[in-house]
Each structure stands twice: as C-alpha cells, then as structure tokens.
Design a protein that fits this description.
By secondary structure, this protein is mostly helical. Helix content is 77%, strand content 0%. It contains nine helices and no strands.
Length: 251
C-alpha cells in the first residue's frame, strides 16, 4: 500500500496549499446546506404529534451534539497520530479543533436545556446523557487549558494528545447512556443501521443540517489551522513568500 498521501500531511506547506482549495468548497456547502436545512426544518417540517413545534430545536441540538462528539474523536485520532508519527500538523489540528468542539458542546447543552423545559418540566436534570455531555465540555476545557499552560510546544502537544486519548472513553458512554441507564433523554432519533423513529418529512431536513454542520466545522477548522500554520512556520521562506503574495494581492 502506498502511504505517500499520509506522509504528505506532515508537510505544513503542502497542507496550506491543498486546504486553500478545499476551504471554498466546504464554506459554500455549509452555507447552502444550513440555509436549506433551517428553512426546511423550521418552516416546512410538520409539527410533532406530542411536542408540537417545540421539537424543532432538534435541528440545532442534534447536529451540535453529534458534531461535539465527533470532534472529540478527531482530537483523539490527531493525538494518536502526533504521538506515533510525530506529525506537528496533528497537534495543529488538535489544538484548533478543541475550541470548535467546546462551542458545539455548549450549544448542545443549552439547546437541550431549552428543549427539556417544555418536555421534562425542568431545564436540567443529572441525567446520564446530560452529565456525560457536561463531562465532555470539561474535557474540551482541559485540552484547551493544557495547551495554553505549557510553554514548550512539544510537551504541550504530548500532554494534550494523552488527555484527548484518555477522554475518548467518554464518547461511548455518551452514545450508550440511554441504553445502559434509565434516563429521561430519548433514544437516537434516527440511526444509519436502523429505522428512523420519525417521519421522513422531519428527519430529512435534520440530515441536511447534520451534513451542513460538518461542512461548517471543516471550513472553520481549515481557517484556524491555516492561520496557526502560518504563525508556527513564520520563519519559513514559503510563508514569507505567501505573505508577500497576499500583500500584493491586497494592493
């Protein structure tokens, strides 16, 4: 098997050049999908027979919750790549994805609380799903704080990678919490391998929103990584050439 493509990810210059082409596509896809998904879900999807229109918050809550968990898995994978193959770009991805994942977790917790009030009669209960999501937020905060507290970049990268890997054990707990414990939180709305628990008119716009959130995440992550690569490689000749090109373009 040819692993040349994998080793290219160790080159900041190659990443910067390639990511510039991907960024526009992800940004336009995110804008289009989120617009279509929001209009479809909020204006055209039928109300739920039990929850009425209050269910529509799932078009923000569910994509944010799924992305928050997926983002942490990405942190763990990036951490493993950084520890095993010593790729500095893996640490860049880990550090720049953590704040995005933290914000998605906050959105999931806030929208979940707003949804819980009319559904459960309270904004918060120490439910297994809610508690494990709160732990996820603390793990994100830990990764961010650890990366900023350690001045040596290599030591910070190793510490954050280890924390990301250890914290990944919380992801299956979040996923299966509604099955392992007696919780108020409802089971998954729809599954890739199973039949959806809601009508297609309701879950199709949700699927569009989920894809839109992933495209948004990819676009924002690429922007943050590109800026961080320029900062870390500021003394490299190719960075100076790129800055001069951007300055000339701006004129």
């Amino acid at each position: 098997m040819n692993w040349t493509w994998f080793h290219k990810w160790g080159s900041p210059k190659w990443f910067y050049e390639v990511s510039g082409r991907w960024l526009t596509g992800f940004a336009w896809a995110a804008a289009l999908l989120l617009l279509v998904g929001l209009v479809w879900g909020l204006a055209f999807a039928p109300p739920d027979y039990q929850q009425g229109n209050s269910f529509r918050i799932i078009y923000i809550h569910v994509p944010a919750a799924i992305l928050a968990q997926s983002c942490y898995l990405m942190l763990a994978i990036a951490g493993a790549v950084g520890l095993i193959w010593k790729m500095k770009l893996a640490d860049v991805a880990l550090q720049q994805a953590a704040p995005i994942g933290a914000w998605m977790t906050v959105i999931a917790l806030v929208t979940g609380s707003l949804w819980g009030k009319p559904t459960w009669g309270t904004y918060w209960v120490w439910d297994a799903r809610l508690t494990s999501m709160l732990i996820l937020l603390f793990l994100y905060f830990g990764v961010i704080a650890l990366g900023q507290a350690i001045s040596n970049r290599d030591s910070a990268a190793k510490a954050c990678a280890v924390l990301a890997l250890v914290g990944a054990v919380n992801i299956p707990i979040i996923k299966y919490s509604v099955e392992w414990w007696n919780t108020l939180h409802q089971p998954a709305t729809f599954k890739i391998t199973g039949k959806a628990s809601m009508a297609s008119e309701m879950w199709l716009p949700l699927l569009v929103m989920i894809i839109g959130f992933y495209c948004f995440f990819a676009a924002v992550l690429l922007i943050r990584m590109r800026l961080e690569v320029l900062r870390r490689e500021s003394r490299a000749s190719w960075v100076k050439a790129e800055i001069n090109r951007l300055l000339e373009k701006g004129q």
